[in-house]
Every structure is written in structure tokens, then in C-alpha cells.
Design goal:
Number of helices: 16
Shape: rod-shaped
Helix content: 40-55%
Oligomer: single chain
Largest sheet: 7 strands, mixed
Length: 601
């Protein structure tokens, strides 16, 4: 592993520095010992020189004689040192040279030690001797006024041998230290490598997301603090990551399951992501990721608001607007901005479908408008008759009853208008959310005919049905009864006296078509659709007939809530141009019918 190799390199460099320090110490020690040995040898030689000088100066033998040569030779052999007697540069005696060779020796007056002795009384020098073929340490001293010099020569090999022994001993010690430190380095390196590998593996696992990883084995106490720090860090990171994951899961759940559509835009104003609700509100939005909102929503108001916040550096961080989509739905769009981890501004668009709210508001406005329109005339009539009765009450009882009857008729008409408006508003509000049930068609038609039997008898109109089949249709008992009540009542109202109103049904596997047929004056082609509009009346004097103008609008609303429809076919008799057939189409269901039709009555 790279970290382990780096650690081993550091240890190897440390080992190399240690060896270099030992070598430097040895070199310094060796130089010091060499100087001390040389100085000690010179001091010893100087002491011997003083002794030899004293010995020779008290000798009765004259220099230059064979006896003097023998004395020098014997003295040098006894002291194990070379003794040379020099006078005027000529060697008169030498303990290591035969007497016959003395004349052959070079002039010694130019020797450094002799020159120094002549100057200061004592001279020293170390050099290679051609006579003895070895390196020698020379010490010379003047003999006094006779011009002679006594010189001692000690082989430098004696000092070299001692230095060689020091070199050998120190080399052995250095080798032992090097081997020992190498073994210790390998031992420490293995422990350190194991620790570094454990720490590295744990750190790498934490970096890859395994926050449960811990340093279990800590080789040596020097890594304990670091291992505990990493373990504590991993534990805290794991806790933070859990909190972040919980928060992210909560946000994801909210983002994907909220009813509002969410659209996230990148810093360029392009779609970055959308939630499921947004895809449901605007199908295909997911396919427009990476494109501008204008391309999917086709509303420039939203794009303008986005550009104002992102591109033009608007001081506003949010905005809100209401837009109408091409399909007629209304959306309340809230735009808010935030900065990502790179401090780039992004936008979140929240789409709230307010179509239902707008629809209800429209129903309320229409209700108020229609109520004021439809109630104004009867209220005016009631007020006028009431004021007449108060200010100038008629004396004729018949006129008084006529006035009171008019007031009652207008009050009944107002009550019917208000009841119809509430029923229609409730039907439109329920819409497709209405919970339908399998309903017995025969029972619903029978109940309506029973409800209006007395009204038909007043005009001597016959109510009949062509054996309505025993089938179940989709709807509610109350709703079906309302439909048939309105249709049969209208047929009786507009049919001439002594005629017939017939109810019959045609069925197949999917739908049942129920027709209410009368012998009335018929309906013009131009009015066949308008009669299903609110407050539309064929007879402008409908107040006298108790018509509110809402019955057929309510019938169409209920039929469509039941996944059906309603229309009119007129005239029935093409020859006379009379008669109308109101047709109601309802889905047939094979499920068991409920008793709601009976219960509603």
C-alpha cells in the first residue's frame, strides 16, 4: 500500500541517518585517538631521547669510534628503538645500520628534525625512511656545544597497529549496531506497517461509506490516540449520515407523495427533476428534463417569472402567480429559490391545482347571480301586492283572495327556485366523486309515477309505462327519482288535458335508454340544447306554472354524474309537429341492486 511504503521509506531514511551519525562519530573518534597516540608516542620518544642523551654524554667513549658504534647498537637494542648520532650532517653511529655502511648514508643536516633541533634544541618529524623502508617517527636533540645531535626513530607501524585495532573494534561495534538496528527496524516496521495498514483500511472503508468499520487491533500504544480518534470520527459520521438519510427519506417521501406538483430547475433555468404529482398534473413532464418550462407548460408567464429571478438577478427570492392551462385547468404556481453547495441559484416550482376551487367559486358566483335574477321578479310582485294590501286593502273578498293567492304563488315559485338551485349546485359539486350504486330502474320509475299520479289526474292525463324491465343501472335511488320526477312533471305540465304520458325503456348489454313521451306542443330545433341550460324557459309566464327553469339542468347534471346522458327528440308526431320524447341513457350493471330507491322515499 502507498502509505505503508512511505512509512518504510521514512524508517529506512532514519536507519541511514543513524549509520551516518555512527560513521561520523567513528571518524571523529578515530582522528582523536590517532592524534593522542601520536602525541603519546612523541612524548615517550622524547623521554627516551633525554635518557639516551644523558647516557651518551656521560659515556667515556668518543663518537666516531667502533666502541661508540657498539655502545649505540647495544643501547638501541636494549631500548628497542633506533638511535642515530649525527655531527655536522654526518652519521657517526646508528643502532640499526652496520658500521661499514655508515659512510654510505646521506647527509642528515637537512633533515627536518635536525634543522628544528639546531634551531630550538629539539625537533620532531614523521616520514618515510628509505633506509629502513618504513614510516618512522623521528625526534632529535642537540648534544650541546660540540655540534652533535642525537636522534631517535620509532617505527610508525606501532602507532598504526594500535589504530588498526581501534578500527577493527569500532568496525565490529558499528556492524553489530547496524545489524541490531536493522533487526529492530524490521520489527518496528512490521508493527508499524500493520498499524498503518489497519488505519488505512479503516479510513478507506469509511471513505467508501462503511461507517461501521472500526480499528479493532492497535499494535503498540503510540497509535492508540489516532485509532481512538478515527473510531470516534467514524461513529460520529455514522450518526450524522443516519440523520441525513432519515431527513432525505422524509423529503423524498414528501416530494413523491405530496399532491402538489414539484418542478426543480437548475441554475440555467432548465428542468432538473419532477415528482410523480407533477407528472400526473402535466403528463409527459419527465420527458422534458433538461429543457425549459415554457416547452412543457406553454405558458410564458411562468417562464418570465423564472427568467426574472435567475437571469436578471432579481432581488426577490420567490414569486407566486395563477395561470390557466390549455386544458382549462387553473394552477397556483409558487416559485422559490435556494443555493446549492456550489452557491448556484436553483429554483423550485410548486404547482397546486386550484381548478376545483375556481369551479366552486364560479358555481357560487353563478348561484348568487342566478338567484338574484330569478328571485327579483317574484319578490317585486310580492312586495307590490303586499304594499297594496297595506295601503289600500280591497273591499271585495274575491280580489283580496286573488292578491293573497298571487303572493302565495310567487312565494312557492321562490321556494322552488331556491330548492332547485341548491339541488343543482350539490349535483355539480359532487360531479364524478359521487358514490353510485346499482339501482333498480323499475322501482325508481314506479316511485316517480306514483309521486305524480295526483298531478296527472288533475288534467285527466293518463300515466303509463311499457313494462319497464327489471334491470339494475348505475346511479343512486334519490338521483334517479329526481330525474324521472322532473321529466314526468314537465310532460304533465306541457301536455294537453285528456292526453297520455308514456314511459318506456330500450336496453342492451351496456346501456338502458328510458324515454318519457308526451303529446305537448313540441320543442323547436333551436331550443333542443338550450332547454338544458339553467333558468331557460320556453314559457316566459312560467311563474304561473311554478317552473324554476332548473329541472332539466339538474337532470343533465345527474345523468352525467352517473356516466350517462340526456337529450330530447321532438317532434314525436312529424305530421302534426307535436310531442316530445326526453331520453335518459344510463349504464347497465349486473351487480345486485340496492334498496336506496325505496329508502329515499
Amino acid at each position: 500500500m502507498p502509505k505503508t511504503s512511505l512509512h518504510m521509506k521514512i524508517l529506512l531514511w532514519g536507519w541511514a541517518v543513524l549509520l551516518f551519525a555512527l560513521l561520523l562519530t567513528f571518524w571523529f573518534y578515530y582522528g582523536t585517538v590517532s592524534k593522542e597516540l601520536t602525541a603519546s608516542s612523541r612524548q615517550n620518544t622524547s623521554r627516551l631521547l633525554n635518557y639516551v642523551r644523558w647516557k651518551i654524554s656521560h659515556s667515556p667513549v668518543n663518537p666516531g669510534t667502533p666502541a661508540f658504534q657498539n655502545e649505540i647498537t647495544e643501547l638501541g637494542s636494549h631500548l628497542d628503538i633506533r638511535i642515530t648520532y649525527i655531527m655536522n650532517g654526518k652519521v657517526l653511529a646508528d643502532s640499526d645500520v652496520e658500521a661499514s655502511r655508515l659512510p654510505e648514508l646521506d647527509d642528515h643536516s637537512n633533515r627536518p628534525e635536525v634543522i628544528a633541533a639546531e634551531t630550538s634544541g629539539t625537533g620532531k618529524d614523521t616520514r618515510y625512511s628509505k633506509t629502513l623502508q618504513t614510516r618512522m617517527l623521528y625526534v632529535a636533540k642537540s648534544m650541546g656545544n660540540n655540534g652533535g645531535f642525537i636522534r631517535l626513530a620509532l617505527p610508525y607501524s606501532v602507532i598504526g597497529e594500535r589504530l588498526d585495532r581501534v578500527m577493527i573494534h569500532f568496525s565490529i561495534l558499528l556492524a553489530l549496531l547496524a545489524v541490531g538496528s536493522a533487526i529492530l527496524l524490521v520489527f518496528i516496521g512490521k508493527r508499524t506497517t500493520s498499524a498503518v495498514r489497519e488505519v488505512s483500511a479503516t479510513a478507506q472503508a469509511i471513505g467508501e461509506g462503511d461507517y461501521s468499520k472500526r480499528i479493532r487491533v492497535i499494535p503498540g500504544g503510540e497509535y492508540k490516540l489516532m485509532a481512538n480518534s478515527i473510531n470516534t470520527m467514524a461513529k460520529k459520521i455514522k450518526g450524522h449520515i443516519r440523520i441525513i438519510e432519515d431527513q432525505r427519506n422524509q423529503l423524498d417521501a414528501m416530494f413523491e407523495n405530496m399532491t402538489e406538483g414539484i418542478m426543480v430547475l437548475d441554475p440555467q433555468g432548465k428542468i432538473e427533476s419532477v415528482n410523480k404529482s407533477m407528472t400526473r398534473l402535466v403528463p409527459g413532464t419527465q420527458e422534458f428534463v433538461g429543457r425549459m418550462p415554457l416547452e412543457v407548460l406553454t405558458r410564458h408567464e411562468i417562464q418570465d417569472a423564472v427568467d426574472k429571478i435567475i437571469k436578471h438577478g432579481s432581488e426577490k427570492d420567490s414569486d407566486a402567480l395563477i395561470v390557466d392551462l390549455a386544458d382549462g385547468r387553473s394552477m397556483n404556481v409558487t416559485i422559490c429559490s435556494y443555493n446549492d453547495y456550489k452557491s448556484r441559484r436553483k429554483l423550485i416550482l410548486v404547482f397546486h391545482d386550484i381548478s376545483e376551487v375556481r369551479r366552486i367559486e364560479k358555481i357560487l358566483r353563478d348561484f348568487v347571480s342566478n338567484a338574484s335574477h330569478q328571485l327579483r321578479t317574484p319578490l317585486t310582485s310580492i312586495k307590490g301586492y303586499a304594499e297594496t294590501l297595506i295601503d289600500t286593502p280591497p273591499q271585495d273578498e274575491k280580489i283580496l283572495k286573488n292578491f293573497l293567492g298571487t303572493i302565495r304563488d310567487n312565494a312557492d315559485h321562490m321556494s322552488k327556485v331556491i330548492t332547485g338551485m341548491f339541488a343543482l349546485a350539490r349535483s355539480e359539486y359532487s360531479g364524478k366523486k359521487l358514490r353510485t350504486k346499482p339501482t333498480d330502474l323499475q322501482k325508481s320509475v314506479g316511485l316517480s309515477m306514483a309521486n305524480l299520479k295526483s298531478l296527472a289526474e288533475k288534467k285527466n292525463i293518463s300515466l303509463s309505462n311499457d313494462e319497464i324491465p327489471q334491470i339494475n343501472v348505475t346511479g343512486t335511488g334519490e338521483g334517479l327519482v329526481q330525474i324521472f320526477d322532473n321529466l314526468i312533471e314537465n310532460a304533465i305540465k306541457y301536455a294537453p288535458e285528456n292526453t297520455e304520458v308514456v314511459v318506456h325503456a330500450d336496453t342492451d348489454d351496456e346501456f338502458a335508454i328510458i324515454k318519457v313521451v308526451d303529446e305537448g306542443p313540441g320543442i323547436a330545433t333551436a331550443d333542443k340544447e338550450r332547454i338544458f341550460e339553467r333558468f331557460f324557459k320556453l314559457d316566459e309566464n312560467a311563474v304561473g306554472h311554478g317552473s324554476s327553469g332548473l329541472g332539466l339542468a339538474l337532470c343533465r347534471s345527474l345523468a352525467r354524474n352517473f356516466n350517462g346522458d340526456i337529450w330530447v327528440e321532438s317532434p314525436v308526431d312529424a305530421t302534426t309537429g307535436t310531442g316530445s320524447s326526453f331520453c335518459v341513457k344510463l349504464p347497465v350493471t349486473a351487480e345486485q341492486a340496492s334498496e336506496s330507491a325505496q329508502d329515499s322515499q
